[in-house]
Amino acid sequence: MAAGSARIQGEVRFGEDFELDCRNFQLRRAGRVLKLERIPLEMLILLIERAGHLVTREEIAERIWGTNVFLDTDNSINSAIDVAPAPLPNRVTLPGSPPKAAILR
Asked: Rounded to whole angstroms, how far apart are CA atoms 52 and 34?
């Protein structure tokens, strides 16, 4: 895990009506549970933990798959990015981050 980041233990609210519950591994919007697969949810947790900092593809791959991975992590990350924003608006305010956070490829 990168310096300056800590694992989220409880719930985090962001955007206008989103709530990330790390204990139950759920993302909710206005109290309703949103369907999100494990990898996009792990990426969202990592981005919130590192709010205000650049998160590299290498950090994402290490967090999700570990250090000695022999798979096409770039395509896997791209697929997760394509899935992750489905329930999220294109830009949201993450706790501790500048006013907007965006996914850059």
From this structure: 25
